[in-house]
Every structure is written in C-alpha cells, then in structure tokens.
Amino acid sequence: MKPSQQLHPSFKFNGLEFATAEEIVLFAQKLKETGAPYEVAIASFIVKWFNDKLYIKVKTSGSTGAPKKIKLLKANMVHSAFATGVYFNLGTDNTALLCLSAKYIAGKMMLVRALTMGWDLHVVAPDKDAITQYDNVYDFAAMVPYQVYHTLSALDKIKILIIGGGVIAPDLEAKLQLKSTEVYATYGMTETITHVAMRRVNGPSKTHVYTALPNIGFSTDVRGCLVIDAPNLTNPEVITNDVVTLLSPTTFEWLGRYDNVINSGGVKLFPEKIERLLRDFIKVPFLISSLHDEALGEQLILVLELEDPKEASNYRTVISELESYHRPKKIFTLSKFPLTETGKIKRSSIRSIIKGYH
C-alpha cells in the first residue's frame, strides 16, 4: 500500500476503530448503501482514497478562473494535512469535528487529516448549526462563515476553529472577539488543496496579515495579484485573482478580489479594504459597492442590512471620518442581503438591486 494511503492506527470515526485499510473500506462501502446523503459523500471519498489511483478528482470553485475538474495527487493531500498539523501543533489523538460536506475539498481534507494523523473524528451532518446539537468538545474544527453565524452560542466547545469558503463579514468578526476559541481565517482554494495561509481573527494575536504554512512562498504578478509557490501541493505556481500587499515571501495582507475593484475618478478602490476600516463601527451586515457616475466613472456607495431605512442616517457620521476617496457618496438599505448556500453575500445581486432602485 502506498504511504499516502496508509490508515493511522489511532484513527476513529464516530468512536469506531479500524484495524486495517481494508476494514474501513468495507465499512465505507456499506455506508454508501445505507447512509444519509452526507454520509454517502464521506463513504465515497474513503473508498476512492484507498483505491489504486494516485490522485483524487475534484472540481474547483472558480477562484483562479472558470470552474473545472482537476486531479490532486494523494501524496500532496497528505503534505497539506501535515502542514496544518505542524502549523497548529496538532498530532495523534486530537479530537476533531467534520461538519462540512465531503463533496468539496474542505470536507475531504478533514478526512485526510484524521485518517493520516490519527484523529478521533466526530462526523455530523453539514447543517448550519451542527455543533449546537452535541455536547462534545473538540481540539479542531473547520466551518464556513454561515455555520459560524449560527454556532456562536456553542463555539466555546472548539479549541481551534478555521473558517474558510468565504470572507468573514465585519459584524461576524466583531462577535468572534468575545469568544475563547482560537479562530483563524484561512486563505486557499481547491487548486492549493485548501489553505496555504492563516490569519488570527481574535484574541491578543489578531491580525490582518496572512502567514504561510510550512514550505509555501508568495509573490505577486503584474496586476498585484498573489502567486503561490507550493511545490509540495501543486505544480506549477498558482496565479490567483486576489490583490494583496506582499509584506514578505511568507506574509501578505489581502486587499480584495481583482474583479471587485472599483475605479472612481481614476483611483482603484477595494471594497473589502474599506469594509475593514468600517467593521468596528458598523454592527449590522453591510458592504461597499458602486454605481455608475458620469464624472467619476463609478461612485462608492454603502449598503446596509436594515429593516428601517431611517436608521441609515445613524451611519453618516461614521463614514464622514473616512478619507475622502474612501467615503461612500450614498447610503442604501436592504431588509435582507441575498446569500449563497455557504453564507457569502451576493455582491453582484445587491449591486443589481441597488441599480434598479437608483
């Protein structure tokens, strides 16, 4: 059996132990026939993990271009798993929660980490409030922002939480400051086998700077977009559409998506950066967007999630404190922001809605 496919003897799956890889494959094959949909996805991955192929086929999310199917080497997936273990000092016998779908790379990699490092893995349905239904405590877990929103009351059950799959909204990040859990935002994508960098979201070490995992380096292209050099994970380098300020070969500050850049009067503005400037002062969901302007090309606007539009006036003082080119020219309100299935705000949909009102 290939080293990348060996089963760690300490691995547990909802309390079950397996003496050999053959034993867990038999278990997975039965689970595929009788399990719930989320269990079938897990079982399918386990069967594929222990087959004779050197790779796993996955679909990218579109972070570096149009979504497509790619092959990830199992050996590289193991490198990624151990890089996470080293970064967080997680070894054998740690307890971990899998509450993400194994259809996607983040869920698959939680399985790989547990299988190869010998974790005691608790597997639950990928519901928005999965952890609130159980009394277990965990050394490590991964969630998308939407799940974190609905898990805040029970978050202290987790020692280390990584959040991926979308930007952490300012109001959510503010709420995480009150939690004892060590919370980290991840940076990565399917092409890099999940995260290649982390930043601490709360506590005394909180920062806006992302730091690379072991054996990973960064540079930028002519657009100012991040280029990832991760020879143990992917070859060749991965060129992203994320504009960053490169601070060193292993650290960067994320500014925003290249395709979200607003050109106002010849000045390139990043909505995500302005949102970070406002996050300590606006406690409701909000975002920075733009509308067409004959003089400027695009003018900045602030969109707030408010039931009562009259409350928007409360935020005029806040935005007046910003530098002139960061200052939204108008404020709009929506009673409810449209969200994706994973809780990401649909920026393009909101812009279309506001354009229709304007």
Write the layout of secondary structure elements.
Elements (H helix, E strand, L loop, with lengths): L11 E2 L2 E2 L3 H14 L2 H13 L5 E5 L9 E5 H15 L6 E4 L6 H13 L2 E4 L14 E6 L1 H5 L8 E6 L6 H7 L5 E8 L4 E7 L8 E4 L4 E4 L4 E5 L8 E11 L2 E7 L4 E3 L2 E3 L1 H8 L7 E8 L3 E9 L10 H5 L9 E5 L12 H11 L1
Parallel strand pairs: 1-6, 5-6, 5-7, 7-8, 8-9, 19-20
Antiparallel strand pairs: 1-2, 3-4, 9-10, 10-11, 11-15, 12-13, 13-14, 14-15, 16-17, 18-19
Could you please describe the fold and organization of this structure?
This protein has 358 residues and is an alpha/beta fold. The protein has nine helices and 20 strands. The chain has a 13-stranded mixed sheet with strand order 2-1-6-5-7-8-9-10-11-15-14-13-12. The longest helix is centred in the first third of the chain and has 15 residues, at 74-88. The protein starts with 11 loop residues before the first strand and ends with a helix. The relative contact order is 0.09. The model has no long low-confidence stretch (mean pLDDT 90).
